[in-house]
Amino acid sequence: MAPRVVSPKEAKELADQVNRALPSSILFYRYGDRTTQIIRFLIENDMDVAKTVVAIKQTALFRKYWHADEITIADVKNAFEEWQCYPTGVTKDGRMVWYVDCFMTKPPKMEDFMLVTIYMVDDIQKRLYEACKALGIQEAYKDYCIIVSDTARTSMSAFNTEMKKAGMDVFVRHFPAFMSSTDIEVNENPAYAPSYDYDHSSFYNLNTPFLLRSIWKLCTLFMPARWAYMVQLLGSDTLPASIPSSCIPKKYGGSFEGSFEAWMQDCASVNGCSLDDPPRQLVDQRVLDQFGQNNGMIATEIPDQVISGWMWKRTNVGHRWHHYYFVLLKDGLLYYFKDVNDTDAQNGFMLENYLKREGIASLTIASNVLHFTNPPLLAAGQSEATRGAEQKGEAHKYWFIVRTPSRDYVFACNSVEQRSQWMFFLNKVIGEANKKAELVL
User: Fold this and answer.
1) Taking 60 as the threshold, does the pLDDT of residue 114 lie above it?
2) What's the confidence (pLDDT) of residue 436?
3) Same domain, 86 and 219
4) Where are any strands of DSSP class E within 143-199?
5) How many helices (H) and strands (E) does the chain have?
């Protein structure tokens, strides 16, 4: 499919409209050029000014909650124990080359993973901006980092669902166009067409285990089509000639002589800290709660509940219906669990700036939407535990959507009364959460 090409002039004009709609003091990035950063948000939001304004406000809240502008290398040094990375240079087309030696054997703590990825991409943006300014070139608007990673010593058990969710938050929503999922291109040539091949990818994973390469082929079926071309999982340590030799570490045949230790020391100097400083506790528990870290409390015993109960949730891929126990808290957090006695939530949502809509007509029910194999409504005297054998069911009727900047979440209830009750309290909590969010911004 041909890309949608937008000229730099048009992109900057749209960025100016977005900028005028934002508070002048809003903090949605740490380093770099404001116009360039806004254009990146525009690219991932269909060049739509209104959508982009909402997305930037979401990122400003995200950065505020994670104390993104306060993170120092001392705060995240422990997270680098099994994941060492550093910049190796900038290409002529304004892209940073970043090397990662990954030898994780176990999943990292979510707090560490989030803080270290925020810090890493902020550092990439800082060094890319400064290098391109010194060279007198425009930094790339999208796909602005070429990552070269080596996972020869990485264990598959180190990757989990929480990491996937956290990674999507950082690399897709809050650092848009880092590896773009859209076909929008900013270029002076209206006939410009990007190259999707081995020499023009964004992610080169060296010494990839065979199992990971096999799994990736399946994963690409559920990801943006563009990503399948931008990621190269290689079984060897040979890199394309399109990456300058000066940006390739010596161990892979290049001439770059830097090191992880040198980068750490430079970061400490920039941050005004010492690598001997202890990591600080920057993040509030409420933020960690998004990832199901609810202090080990049983679902039914979590304090400050507004409403709780069973609802159905439709998956984003495959449109399958799953039954979960939901808990809505006063401070604007919505959990869901597999069982009322669970202590680990499957997921959590912070409800700031969420828009909700109701009505069957507001969603197109296509033929590939599966009917659930059990009827939504429980028979008299029947409980969740005694539902019985599976049987052919009917489509859900009493559903609604919680709309977020990144996607729509579709929920269904067993009755119109139950739906009305959930929507009443969601409206109330979302309204209060939005007021608090405006104060933060």
Assistant:
1) yes
2) 74
3) yes
4) 145-150, 184-186
5) 11, 14
- Answer whether residue 43 is part of any domain: no
Interior angle at CA 23, CA 18 and CA 29, nearest 5: 75
Residue-level pLDDT at 294: 57
Name 2's bridge partners.
none
In 3D space, the residue among 267, 37, 286, 48 whose CA is nearest the CA of residue 174 turns out to be 37
Cβ contacts of residue 419 below 8 Å, gap of 6+?
358, 398, 399, 400, 412, 413
β-partners of residue 232 are 204
CB 174 within 8 A of CB 140: no
Same domain, yes or no, for 319 and 378? yes
pTM for the complete prediction?
A: 0.76
Q: Measure the CA–CA gap between 438 and 403, rounded to whole angstroms.
A: 18
73-77, 278-282, 423-427: least confident range = 423-427
The β-bridge partners of 411 are: 313, 400
User: How far apart, in whole angstroms, are the C-alpha atoms of residue 310 and residue 349?
Assistant: 17
Please state, in angstroms and rounded to a whole number, the distance separating the CA atoms of residues 429 and 431. 5
